[in-house]
């Protein structure tokens, strides 16, 4: 949940998505501005924080980077419960990762905080020539729409390989 102090806001952010989609890479970009070609798999979940100044408010993101493997699935509610925002990451070159992303949308719909800001991130945009996921994005969105028309939701096409470069 986002909590406000004197011009300070703490926001819990959770990353969900299939193993290998690029969740840890996205966090590494956001927190350190780096990219690792051989990013190690996350075990369980990892915690990071990043503070940003937005206008005259300081936002401290408390970030939970989850593992993605099915065997850790039962732990996920611990991380998304009370989160102000969730980023569901998939790999545009993997239909399996997109199927998994849709499952996360449905799980948040059933069990997540209804005011949560949800972003769907189609990662590895640099692999455009290997793209497998195209117009299907709208199907995931129709779920979010019917879930809560007042909630905020976003879609990003991104590449951790190039993100924030230059
Ligand atoms: N080409 C490309 N590879 C990426 C991108 N983002 C992540 N990767 C690679 O994909 C693999 C899995 O990334 P990782 O962040 O560990 O995925 P996670 O399991 O979702 O945390 C790693 O080898 C990354 O280097 C991207 O935007 N483009
Ligand atoms: Mg990871």
Biggest sheet descriptor: 7 strands, mixed
Shape: globular
Kindly state the percentage of residues in helix.
25-40%
By helix and strand content, what is the structural category?
alpha/beta
Q: What do we call the CATH topology?
A: Rossmann fold
Integer count of domains: 1
Under CATH, the homologous superfamily reads: P-loop containing nucleotide triphosphate hydrolases
Oligomer: single chain
Report the mean per-residue pLDDT as an integer.
Answer: 85
> What ligand species are in this complex?
guanosine-5'-diphosphate, magnesium ion
- Please state the CA-atom Rg, rounded to the nearest Å: 15 Å
- Low-pLDDT segments: none
Q: Report the β-strand fraction as a percent range.
A: 25-35%
Distance between the termini: 33 Å
Please give the count of helices.
Answer: 4
> What is the number of E strands?
7
Could you give the order of the helices and strands? EEHEEHEHEHE
* CATH classification class: Alpha Beta
Q: Can you tell me the CATH architecture? A: 3-Layer(aba) Sandwich
Task: Kindly describe this structure.
This protein has 166 residues and is of the alpha/beta class. It has one domain (2-157): P-loop containing nucleotide triphosphate hydrolases (Rossmann fold), CATH 3.40.50.300. It contains 4 helices and 7 strands; from the N terminus they run ββαββαβαβαβ. Strand 1 (3-4) and strand 2 form a beta hairpin. The longest helix has 17 residues, at 95-111. The termini are far apart. The model has no long low-confidence stretch (mean pLDDT 85). Magnesium ion (MG) binds at residues 23-24, 41-42, 65. Guanosine-5'-diphosphate is lined by residues 17, 19-25, 36-39, 41-42, 68, 123-124, 126-127, 159-161.
């Amino acid at each position: 949940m986002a909590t406000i102090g004197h011009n300070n806001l703490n926001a819990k952010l959770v990353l969900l998505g299939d193993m290998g989609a690029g969740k840890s890479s996205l966090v590494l970009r956001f927190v350190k501005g780096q990219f690792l070609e051989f990013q190690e798999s996350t075990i369980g979940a990892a915690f990071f924080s990043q503070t940003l100044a937005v206008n005259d408010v300081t936002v401290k993101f408390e970030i939970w980077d989850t593992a993605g493997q099915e065997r850790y699935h039962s732990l996920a509610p611990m991380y998304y419960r009370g989160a102000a925002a969730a980023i569901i990451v998939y790999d545009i070159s993997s239909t399996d990762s997109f199927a998994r992303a849709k499952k996360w949308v449905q799980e948040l719909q059933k069990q997540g905080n209804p005011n949560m800001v949800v972003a769907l991130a189609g990662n590895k945009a640099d692999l455009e020539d290997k793209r497998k996921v195209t117009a299907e994005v709208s199907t995931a969105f129709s779920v979010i729409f019917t879930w809560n028309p007042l909630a905020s939701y976003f879609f990003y096409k991104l590449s951790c390989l190039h993100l924030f470069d230059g």
